[in-house]
Amino acid sequence: MEEIAFAMQLMPGMEAEYQRRHDAIWPELSEALGAAGIRDYAIYLHQESRLLFAVQKRLPGHTAHDLPSLPIMQKWWAYMADLMETNPDNSPVVMPLPCVFRLMS
């Protein structure tokens, strides 16, 4: 299983709305993420900086790189664009986070 981590920036005052929208994530989007091989996806919020820290676990041979071309992904990005920093195509600005420590037992 591959694991990646990344950060995104939430706009001021949007914490509750971001949570609300994710609490009601669209079933079609959840299905698309699962079909792409994403088996575990968590997003954490650092309150003071409003940085979102995301961790995804992906199956070998995943197709997560194809997600941006899906209409449901583009629709979700447009829906979320008013809450966070985005690129011109409404995708969130993503800052990859390299793993610098892991303890496994």
From TrEMBL:
<dbReference type="GO" id="GO:0019301">
    <property type="term" value="P:rhamnose catabolic process"/>
</dbReference>
<dbReference type="InterPro" id="IPR013448">
    <property type="entry name" value="L-rhamnose_mutarotase"/>
</dbReference>
<dbReference type="Pfam" id="PF05336">
    <property type="entry name" value="rhaM"/>
</dbReference>
<dbReference type="GO" id="GO:0016857">
    <property type="term" value="F:racemase and epimerase activity, acting on carbohydrates and derivatives"/>
</dbReference>
<keyword id="KW-0119">Carbohydrate metabolism</keyword>
<protein>
    <submittedName>
        <fullName>L-rhamnose mutarotase</fullName>
    </submittedName>
</protein>
<dbReference type="GO" id="GO:0005737">
    <property type="term" value="C:cytoplasm"/>
</dbReference>
<dbReference type="InterPro" id="IPR008000">
    <property type="entry name" value="Rham/fucose_mutarotase"/>
</dbReference>
<keyword id="KW-0963">Cytoplasm</keyword>
<keyword id="KW-0684">Rhamnose metabolism</keyword>
<dbReference type="InterPro" id="IPR011008">
    <property type="entry name" value="Dimeric_a/b-barrel"/>
</dbReference>
<keyword id="KW-0413">Isomerase</keyword>
